[in-house]
Amino acid sequence: MSGEADSRILDTVQEALLFHNTPPALIDKLVAAARSVERSSRPRYGPTRVVAGALGTKFSFAPLPERNVPRPFLLIGPPGVGKTITVAKLAARLRLRNRSVAVVSADTVRAGALEQRAFTRSLEVNPLRASGPEALRKAPWMN
């Protein structure tokens, strides 16, 4: 693949990150990592695999913990990016292992409220609310 095609892939990666409001400093790091992934890939990867490779160099992902030790997971992001479905999947996996699950929302604007109630009901989990960071910090499930 030519340098021009390489540049197009990196431009596509950068445009996608900008479109999704990725912080500029993170865009710079991910595009640099994507450049390394793109240069080393044989056969050449498209933008999706280049981004996946770049993310893999900057972030680590671990399986859910095996022990039943309380461990909070925090999901943040704008509406519509998949937080509710991700919480549902994590909660379902843990419940299938007979683990206790608490689903806590600190969101004051509940775009996914109906979906959250539906999945928590099916998993027999009572969703909890925290009115903001201070309430969350003081909550009994965080101690």
Summed up:
Helices cover 53% and strands 3% of the residues. By secondary structure, it is mostly helical.
Task: Provide tags for this entry.
3% strand, 143 residues, mainly alpha, 2 strands, two-stranded parallel ribbon, 53% helix
Q: What do these coordinates show?
A:
The chain is built from six helices and two strands. By secondary structure, it is an all-alpha fold. It is 53% helix and 3% strand. A two-stranded parallel ribbon has the order 1-2. The chain has two domains: 3-58; 83-142, no CATH class. Helix 1 packs antiparallel against helix 2 (24-40). The model has no long low-confidence stretch (mean pLDDT 79).
What is the mean pLDDT?
79
Unreliable parts? none
**Whole-Å distance between the termini?**
54 Å
How much of the polypeptide forms β-strand, as a percent range?
under 5%
The chain-level structural class is mainly alpha
The number of distinct β-strands equals: 2
SS summary, helix count:
6
Number of domains: 2
Please state the overall shape, judged from the principal axes of the Cα atoms: elongated
The spatial strand order of the largest sheet comes to 1-2
What order do the SSEs take from the amino end to the carboxyl end, as H and E? HHHHEHEH
Radius of gyration: 19 Å
Share of helix, binned: 40-55%
> The biggest beta sheet, please?
2 strands, parallel
Task: Summarize the topology.
Blueprint: H1 3-19, H2 24-40, H3 47-58, H4 83-96, E1 104-105, H5 113-122, E2 128-129, H6 133-138
Helix pairs in contact: 1-2, 1-3, 2-3, 4-5
